[in-house]
Design brief:
The chain has 399 residues and is mainly β. Helices cover 5% and strands 52% of the residues. The chain has a 16-stranded antiparallel beta barrel. It starts with 6 loop residues before the first strand and ends with a strand.
């Protein structure tokens, strides 16, 4: 199954020049001068009565990777680059309880994990291709406490982080959910069946989602408990399946996920503590004909922990966070997991498993629509000597 993007503009290795000082100065100027903005433009009414909503967001990123080696112990070149992300979305209210949504995003045509485009590589490397593709196109119906959508959309999986599934990956298929209870205590059941993207214009393999989420709020304290399944069914006969790294398009996954989160106001400051467990119940063999599967047949578990203080809701807000992750090779499918922590993989796909490490994060709200986020990642492989360090500064702006 495949879909065609709306516009493609491959970019050659342009802008291959050293301009670190001017670029960083321009970034600093943008951060200092960030204006206020509304989160969305409403057309044909206000609030719930609006017939359509146009929204957009922009990200400018500086990213540095250094002191990294591959699984053979060969050092990777340090890398510094500037990147951007642009997304524009439109939701239209067709009738009471019926919504049509579309969104266009930037990125490389071959990357389903990342909507970022490299505009300047400070070390003279090729900046890669750039295109604009539809990453969302769906029809959603809501009635009472139930909802359902068909099309291509974000995965409706509750999670405190993206270690199991990247927010930028948008599968196509069917999803539905129903909620019981009230704001003090509610239970939500969600399910879906999807086809998984290979790049932005092809699909291969199927994903089954089932999750139960219980949330409760009592005064200044709240908690969430979630449990669910992400089941990946590969399509080995599909030519696009072989494009995924490490044979992920040819391998099934049955990943059970458990999440717990505690939220509390401490001295007027929001504090959130989260933990997750991952277990892939799919059986692999040490005698599997695929050497990579055989070498990692028992690497099927993972866990993560985070603590976060603060928020970025209004001007002047600050957020501090720490994350720890330990994700074995087959705990989740690396082709659809987060791509933030490390640079392992190809130009269009990240291998974000067989990793353990730390993230330190700081964010500052310039306004309700603009913020700056700085993140430091220190990562090592679990079964090899591969490692890496990464630092990012993002300027995020919602229109």
């Amino acid at each position: 199954m495949s879909t065609t993007g709306i516009c493609t503009h491959p970019r050659p290795g342009a802008l291959r020049r050293r301009a670190a000082v001017p670029a960083v100065a321009a970034l600093a100027l943008l951060l200092a001068a960030a204006p206020r903005a509304e989160a969305a433009v409403e057309l044909g009414g206000k609030g719930k009565d609006a017939k359509a909503k146009l929204s957009a967001d922009f990200r400018l990123r500086f990213e540095a990777d250094w002191d990294s080696q591959n699984a053979s112990g060969v050092a990777r070149d340090d890398r510094n680059r500037a990147r951007v992300r642009v997304r524009v979305g439109l939701t239209m209210k067709l009738s009471e309880g019926l919504e049509l949504g579309v969104r266009v995003r930037s990125g490389a045509e071959g990357s389903h994990q990342s909507p970022h485009i490299t505009i300047l590589d400070f070390d003279g490397n090729d900046t890669g291709d750039a295109s604009f593709d539809l990453d969302k196109w769906y029809l959603k119906a809501t009635r009472g406490r139930g909802w359902a959508w068909v099309g291509r959309n974000g995965l409706p999986l509750w999670r405190p982080d993206e270690l199991a599934f990247d927010d930028d990956v948008t599968p196509a298929g069917l999803a539905a959910g129903y909620e019981w209870g009230d704001k003090e205590g509610k239970l939500t059941l969600t399910g879906g069946y999807f086809t998984l993207p290979v790049g932005m214009r092809a699909f291969s393999g199927n994903l089954t989602l089932a999750q139960a989420v219980y949330q409760r709020q009592a005064g200044a304290t709240g908690f969430t408990l979630a449990g669910g399944l992400l089941g990946v069914e590969a399509e080995p006969g599909d030519p696009d399946a072989g494009r995924l790294l490490n044979g992920n398009g040819l391998r099934d996954y049955q990943t059970w996920i458990g999440n717990a989160q505690l939220r509390r106001q401490v001295g007027g400051l929001p504090l959130t503590v989260s933990a997750s467990l991952y277990h892939n119940a799919e059986s692999y063999s040490r005698n599997d004909p695929d050497p990579f599967t055989a070498a990692n047949f028992d690497q099927t578990d993972g866990w993560s922990f985070s603590v976060q203080a603060g928020s970025t809701k209004k001007k002047g807000d600050r957020l501090y966070a720490y994350y720890y992750a330990h994700v074995e090779t087959f705990a989740v499918s690396s082709s659809y997991a987060q791509d933030d922590w490390l640079r392992w993989g190809s130009a269009t796909e990240t291998r974000a498993t067989n990793m353990k490490g730390h993230e330190l994060r700081f964010a500052y709200a310039l306004s309700g629509a603009a913020n700056v986020v700085a993140r430091l990642y220190l990562v090592d492989a679990i079964t090899t000597i591969e490692d890496g360090n990464r630092f990012r500064v993002d300027f995020n702006y919602k229109f």
